[in-house]
Specification:
- The complex is a heterotrimer of chains A (322), B (390) and C (307).
- Chain A is mostly helical and 322 residues long.
- In chain A, 74% of the residues lie in helices and 1% in strands.
- Chain A has a single domain (4-321), classed as Orthogonal Bundle (ABC transporter involved in vitamin B12 uptake, BtuC), CATH 1.10.3470.
- In chain A, helix 1 packs antiparallel against helix 6 and helix 3 runs antiparallel to helix 4.
- Chain A is globular, with a radius of gyration of 20 Å.
- Chain A starts with a helix and ends with a helix.
- Chain B is of the alpha/beta class.
- Chain B is built from twelve helices and 14 strands.
- With 307 residues, chain C is mostly helical.
- Chain C has a domain at 8-217.
- In chain C, strand 1 and strand 2 form a beta hairpin.
- Classes of the chains: A mainly alpha (322), B alpha/beta (390), C mainly alpha (307).
- The A-C interface holds A 53, 57, 59, 61, 106, 109-114, 116-118, 120-122, 124-125, 128-129, 131-132, 134, 241, 245, 248-249, 252, 256, 290, 292-293, 295-300, 303-304, 307 and C 31, 37, 84, 87-88, 91-95, 97-99, 101-110, 112-113, 226, 229-230, 233, 237, 276-277, 279-280, 283-284, 287-288, 290-291, 294-295, 298-300.
C-alpha cells in the first residue's frame, strides 16, 4: 500500500510533531509550539483538499470557505458564552457538511474551469456574508475563548491544545487513508481518470463526487474550528480567496494525490513564510517584507519541474522495482 | 510529558534572564502591514518611528533600543502569530504598531494576557476605549469616532444642512457614521454604504447628484478613496457639492489623488502647519531623510518611541517594571508632533482637532493646509465605560 | 428614486459593463483559444496602468503614453509566455492556476520594488476632462464615454479579427486542433505567443483606461480579475459575443442592484437593517447570478464552438 521509505517519513513527521513541545520547552522557545500547531491545522486543511483535488480531480478554489465556517461555529458559540467544545465541534462538522453539500450540489454540475470559478464565486459570497455579519463583528472579526472539553483539560495550556490538534491530524490522516483505499475511494479516483467510463459501468458518479466533496469540506471545517481555538479570533479573512490559493499551494508543494504529501506541503509553506523573510532580513536589512519576490518565481519553478511535489522527491522503492 | 516541561521551562527562563532588572536593551516588537496592497501604511509609520529613534539616538533611559518588526499581511491571525513570536521568541518588552482595527482586536488579547504594554500607532478600535479597555493599552493616534465627531462639529460650525453621507460597509465605516451623527445637528439627506474594496463609484455619484445635498461627508480610505475622489472630480460634482472627508485625503494618498483632491476638506488631529518646534523639526528631518512629505500616520508613529522613552525614564531604566512604565506614560510627558496633550482615563489622547483643506501651491500641485481648530481638547465618547483591571 | 435616476443608473451599469468587457476580452481570448487559465492577466492590467502612468507623467501626453505602453505590454506578455507559460499548455488547470498565482505575487512585489508602495499619480488627461449632458441635469464625464468607445472598438476589432481574417482562421483552427494545424506547417508556437501578446495588450489597455479613474497601485488588478472571470464564465469561455453580453449584464446587475436594493429592502425590513443588509446582498448578487447561470447552463450562456 505505502512504500517503506515513505512510511518512515510519515512516522518521522508524526514523531517530530509530537516532540516539538518538550524540545521547544527545553530550549525556552515556546513560539515553535504555536507555529507547529498552526502547521498541523493547515495540514488537516491541505490533506482534506487533496481528497477532491488530487484524487477526485475537482479543482476547488474555495476551500477556505470551510475553514471560515468551522471557525465561526466556535466563534459564534463563544460569543454567546457557550464554550462547550463537543457542541462547538459538532456544529462545526455538521455545518461544514451541510454547506459543502449545497455548494457541491451546485458546483458539480460544471466541469473544468467552470468548476474552479464557481467554487471561487460561492466562497466569495460567504466572505461577503461574513463581512456583513455586524452582530459578530463583521470585518473586525470576533474575539473568542478556547473550547472547553473536559474538566482538567485546559486548552489555555498551550501544550494541551497542541496535542489535541495533533490528535485530530492523526485521526484525519487515518480516515483519509481509509477512505482513499476503500471501494468508495477507488470510484472517486476512477471519476478523475475517466468519468464517462465510470458512468458507463453504471456508477452514479455525481453522488460519489458529491460525497467526496462533503467529506473534504467537513474535514476542513474541523481545521477551521481548531484554527479559531489557536488564534482565539475569528474573521471573514479566513475565507478570502487568497487563503484558498494558499491551501492549494500547500497541496501542490507537498504533492497532489499523495495523501500524506500535503501535510508536508503545509509545513514547507508555513516554515518558508516564517524563515525566509528573516533570512532575507539577515542578508540585507529591509528586504524581508519582499519575500513574495522570491516565493512567486519559486512557485512557478515548482509547478514546472516538480510535478510530484515534495512527497515525490522522497525515493520510492516500489517505483524503482516496477 | 507536561510534567517535564513544567519543571524545565521556569528553570530555563530564570537562567536566561538572571536578575530581571539588569536589562541592557529594550526590545520593542512592531507589528504592521509591510507587504501586499496596504504596505504603504506600514512604510509611512515605520519611517516615522525610526526618525524618532534617530532623534533619541536609539537609546531610551540608558538602554539600547532593539526593534523587532513583524509583518501582519493585513490578516488578523497572522498579526496574532507575530505577537506570539515576538513575546515568546524575541522576548519583547512591549508590542506596538497596527493599522487595522481587526488586527488590533486579535493582537491585544494576547499581549495584555502576558501583562505587557501594547501601543497602537493607528488602529482606533472603539472597544479598546470602552468595554475592552486595559491599563496596558495606549494609543498615540486616536479613537475611531473622534475624527468624524470633529467633522460633525465642523459642519455645524459651517452651517451645512442637508448633508449626504457615504461610507464603507464594514465595522469601521459604520463607526465613522455613528461618530459623525453623534455631533452633527443638521439634516441627513441620505446615507449610502458601499462595498469594501469597491473601485467604481459612478452609481453612488449619480445618487449624490440626484439628492442635491449641501455637502458630502465621506469615509473612503486608501485606494478606494483615490478612485472615489478622481471620479467625483471627473463628474464635476466638486464644484457644486463640496466633499468633506475623514481618513480619505492625507499625505499618504495625496500623490495618488493628485489635483483631483484640491478643494476638499477634512478633519485631523494633526496640525501639520503648527509652529511647534517638535513638529517643525519632525517634518523637516523627515523630508530630508526619506525624500517625501510625512503623513499623519508618520506623525502618530513618531510619537510612539517618544512615549516609550518617557516610560523607560520614569521606570528608571527598567522596562520590566510595567507598572512604573504605565504610570510614567500616563502623564504624556514627551515631545509630541501634536504639541502638548493629556491622556484620558482610558489612555486615549484628549486632543485638538483641526480643519484641513487641500489647496494648490504656486505650481498648481496639491498641498494640505490646516485652516483652523474645530474642537479643542476633544475627549472620546467611551471613556466613561472604561474600568481598568490589572 | 425617480425614473430618470433609474435610467441613469442603467446607463452607469452599461458603462461599467463595457469597462469589464475591456478587462475580460484578453482573458477570454487566452483562455478560450489557448486553454490557459491566466491569473497573471490581472498583473498585466496593473503593468499597463503603471507603464501608462509613468510615461504620461514623463511626457505629459496621454496619447504618447498609449503609444509607448502598447509595445511594453506586448513585450511583457511575450516574456511571460516564453518563460513561464509555454510549457503549461498541456498541463491541467490546477498547475496553470498555481503558476500564474506565483506570477501575481512576483509582479506585485516587483512593482512595489520599482515604484514603491504608494499609489502613482495619474489624472484624467486635460483634453478628456469635462462632461457632456446626455440626460437632463446629469452631466456625464467625457472620459467615461471614451472608455465606452474604446471598449466597443476593441469588441468590434476582435470579432473582425477572429471571424474575418486569415490569422483569425488559424487561431480558431489552432484552438480546435493544435496538433493538426502544426502538422499543416503553421508555426503554432509563434501563433500562440502572438495571441498571448495580444491578450497582454488588451489587459494593458484596460489598465491604462482604469488609471485616471482608479488608483494605480500594487495589486490593483486582483479585484478586477475576479470580476473578469465571472464575466467570461457567464458568457461562455472563448466567446467574444458572450463576453460582451455577460459584461454588460453584470455591469447593470451590479450597479442597479446596489443602488436599488437598499431602498427596496427598506420596504419590508426597516430602514436601518436594509442599509446594512442591502449593500451586503448587492455585493453577493453577481455571484448568485453566476451560480444561477451555471446551474442551468453549465458551460455559460454562449458555449464557444472551438476548444
Amino acid at each position: 500500500m505505502i512504500d517503506r521509505i515513505k512510511l518512515l517519513f510519515l512516522i518521522g513527521g508524526i514523531v517530530v510533531c509530537a516532540l516539538v513541545p518538550p524540545v521547544a520547552g527545553a530550549a525556552g522557545d515556546d513560539f515553535y509550539v504555536t507555529l507547529f500547531a498552526r502547521i498541523m491545522i493547515f495540514a488537516i486543511a491541505a490533506v482534506s483538499l487533496d481528497l477532491i483535488l488530487g484524487f477526485g480531480g475537482m479543482i476547488s478554489f474555495g476551500h477556505a470557505a470551510y475553514l471560515g465556517l468551522g471557525a465561526y461555529a466556535v466563534g459564534i458559540f463563544s460569543f454567546y458564552g457557550i464554550n462547550d467544545g463537543f457542541l462547538q465541534f459538532f456544529v462545526a462538522i455538521v455545518g461544514s457538511a451541510l454547506v459543502a453539500l449545497v455548494i457541491g450540489a451546485i458546483c458539480l454540475r460544471t466541469r473544468g474551469i467552470y468548476f474552479i470559478m464557481i467554487t471561487l464565486a460561492l466562497t466569495q459570497m460567504l466572505y461577503f456574508l461574513g463581512i456583513s455579519l455586524e452582530e459578530y463583528g463583521g470585518d473586525d472579526g470576533l474575539n473568542t475563548d478556547r473550547s472547553e472539553f473536559i474538566a482538567g483539560f485546559d486548552l489555555y495550556e498551550e501544550v494541551n491544545l497542541y496535542y489535541l490538534i495533533l490528535g485530530f491530524l492523526i485521526l484525519c490522516v487515518f480516515i483519509m487513508h481509509r477512505v482513499i483505499n476503500s471501494r468508495f475511494g477507488m470510484v472517486v479516483r476512477g471519476c478523475h481518470a475517466n468519468e464517462d467510463r465510470m458512468q458507463a459501468i453504471g456508477f452514479p458518479t455525481f453522488r460519489y463526487k458529491l460525497a467526496a466533496f462533503v467529506i473534504s469540506g467537513t474535514m476542513c471545517g474541523i481545521a477551521g474550528a481548531l484554527l479559531a481555538n489557536l488564534t482565539e479570533f475569528v474573521t471573514p479573512e479566513f475565507m478570502h480567496w487568497f487563503r484558498s490559493g494558499e491551501i492549494m499551494i500547500m497541496v501542490l508543494v507537498g504533492g497532489m494525490g499523495s495523501l500524506f504529501g500535503p501535510a508536508f506541503g503545509a509545513a514547507a509553506y508555513l516554515l518558508f513564510e516564517e524563515w525566509v523573510p528573516d533570512l532575507m532580513e539577515a542578508v540585507a536589512t529591509g528586504t524581508g517584507e519582499n519575500w513574495h519576490f522570491i516565493f512567486g518565481p519559486l512557485l512557478v519553478i515548482l509547478v514546472l519541474f516538480a510535478k510530484q511535489g515534495l512527497w515525490g522527491l522522497i525515493p520510492d522503492r516500489s517505483r524503482r522495482d516496477g | 510529558m507536561r510534567f517535564r516541561i513544567a519543571l524545565i521551562a521556569p528553570a530555563l527562563a530564570l537562567a536566561a534572564t538572571p536578575g530581571l532588572a539588569q536589562e541592557k536593551e529594550i526590545r520593542i516588537g512592531y507589528i504592521n502591514t509591510f507587504s501586499g496592497g496596504a504596505a504603504v501604511y506600514g512604510k509611512h509609520q515605520k519611517d516615522g518611528l525610526e526618525l524618532a529613534l534617530d532623534h533619541l539616538g536609539w537609546k531610551m533611559g540608558g538602554l539600547d533600543v532593539k526593534m523587532i518588526y513583524g509583518d501582519d499581511q493585513r490578516k488578523p491571525d497572522v498579526g496574532r502569530q507575530q505577537a506570539d513570536k515576538q513575546l515568546k521568541k524575541d522576548k519583547v518588552h512591549l508590542v506596538a504598531g497596527i493599522t487595522w482595527s481587526n488586527v488590533l482586536a486579535a493582537v491585544q488579547k494576547r499581549v495584555i494576557r502576558s501583562k505587557k504594554i501594547i501601543i497602537s500607532t493607528n488602529a482606533g478600535w472603539s472597544a479598546m476605549a470602552g468595554k475592552n479597555c486595559s491599563p496596558y493599552f495606549f494609543t498615540t493616534s486616536w479613537n475611531n469616532d473622534q475624527t468624524p465627531e470633529a467633522m460633525g462639529e465642523l459642519m455645524n460650525q459651517e452651517k451645512l444642512d442637508n448633508v449626504f453621507l457615504i461610507s464603507a460597509n464594514y465595522q469601521a465605516g459604520k463607526d465613522m457614521l455613528t461618530g459623525f451623527e453623534r455631533t452633527y445637528k443638521g439634516k441627513v439627506a441620505k446615507r449610502i454604504l458601499y462595498r469594501l474594496g469597491q473601485r467604481d463609484y459612478q452609481a453612488e455619484i449619480s445618487q449624490i447628484r440626484a439628492a442635491k445635498p449641501a455637502a458630502l461627508f465621506g469615509f473612503v480610505p486608501g485606494p478606494m478613496g483615490i478612485a472615489f475622489v478622481k471620479q467625483y472630480r471627473a463628474a464635476g460634482l466638486h464644484k457644486t457639492i463640496p466633499f468633506y472627508s475623514v481618513f480619505t485625503v492625507d499625505y499618504l494618498t495625496l500623490g495618488g489623488h493628485g489635483k483631483a483632491a484640491i478643494g476638499t476638506y477634512h478633519t485631523s488631529y494633526w496640525n501639520n502647519n503648527s509652529d511647534d518646534p517638535v513638529n517643525k523639526r519632525f517634518i523637516a528631518d523627515f523630508k530630508k531623510k526619506y525624500g517625501y512629505h510625512p503623513s499623519m500616520f508618520s506623525a502618530q508613529a513618531y510619537d510612539m518611541p517618544m512615549l516609550v522613552n518617557s516610560g523607560v525614564v520614569g521606570a528608571k531604566g527598567d522596562p520590566n517594571d510595567v507598572r512604573a512604565m504605565v504610570a510614567a506614560m500616563e502623564k504624556a510627558d514627551f515631545p509630541s508632533t501634536r504639541g502638548k496633550f493629556t491622556y484620558n482615563t482610558n489612555h486615549i489622547p484628549i486632543q485638538n482637532f483641526y480643519r484641513r483643506e487641500v489647496q494648490a501651491d504656486a505650481n498648481g500641485n496639491p498641498v494640505i493646509v490646516t485652516t483652523g481648530v474645530v474642537k479643542e481638547n476633544h475627549k472620546d465618547s467611551y471613556y466613561k465605560q472604561c474600568k481598568f483591571k490589572w | 428614486m425617480t425614473w430618470l435616476l433609474l435610467v441613469e443608473q442603467t446607463l452607469n451599469g452599461a458603462q461599467f459593463g463595457v469597462f469589464l468587457f475591456l478587462v475580460s476580452a484578453g482573458l477570454t481570448l487566452v483562455l478560450g483559444i489557448m486553454n490557459v487559465v491566466n491569473l497573471a492577466h490581472g498583473s498585466l492590467f496593473m503593468l499597463g496602468a503603471y507603464y501608462a502612468a509613468t510615461f504620461f507623467g514623463l511626457t505629459g501626453s496621454f496619447l504618447l503614453a498609449l503609444v509607448i505602453m502598447v509595445p511594453l505590454a506586448l513585450i511583457s506578455g511575450i516574456v511571460i509566455e516564453v518563460v513561464a507559460l509555454r510549457t503549461m499548455y498541456d498541463r491541467d488547470h490546477m498547475d496553470q492556476v498555481l503558476a500564474t498565482f506565483g506570477l501575481i505575487l512576483f509582479f506585485n512585489e516587483s512593482v512595489r520594488l520599482v515604484w514603491g508602495p504608494e499609489s502613482q499619480p495619474m489624472p484624467v488627461p486635460d483634453f478628456l476632462d469635462g462632461s457632456v449632458e446626455i440626460l437632463p441635469e446629469a452631466p456625464y464625464p467625457v472620459f467615461r464615454i471614451v472608455v465606452i468607445l474604446v471598449g466597443l472598438a476593441v469588441g468590434a476589432g476582435l470579432y473582425f479579427l477572429i471571424t474575418r481574417t486569415k490569422i483569425g482562421m488559424l487561431i480558431r483552427a489552432g484552438a480546435s486542433n493544435r496538433a493538426m494545424v502544426g502538422a499543416l506547417g503553421v508555426n503554432i508556437r509563434l501563433l500562440y505567443t502572438l495571441v498571448f501578446g495580444l491578450g497582454a495588450i488588451l489587459a494593458g489597455l484596460a489598465g491604462m483606461m482604469a488609471g485616471p479613474i482608479q488608483s494605480v497601485e500594487p495589486g490593483m488588478g486582483e479585484d478586477m480579475l475576479i470580476l473578469a472571470f465571472v464575466v467570461i464564465v457567464i458568457g461562455g469561455i472563448g466567446s467574444i459575443r458572450g463576453a460582451v453580453i455577460a459584461s454588460v449584464l453584470i455591469g447593470i446587475v451590479e450597479v442597479v442592484g446596489r443602488s436599488i436594493l437598499p431602498f427596496a429592502m427598506a420596504n419590508f425590513m426597516g430602514e436601518d437593517a436594509a442599509q446594512t443588509a442591502g449593500p451586503a446582498v448587492a455585493s453577493m448578487l453577481i455571484y448568485v447570478l453566476m451560480a444561477a447561470v451555471l446551474f442551468f447552463k453549465p458551460a455559460g450562456l454562449f458555449p464557444a464552438q472551438a476548444g
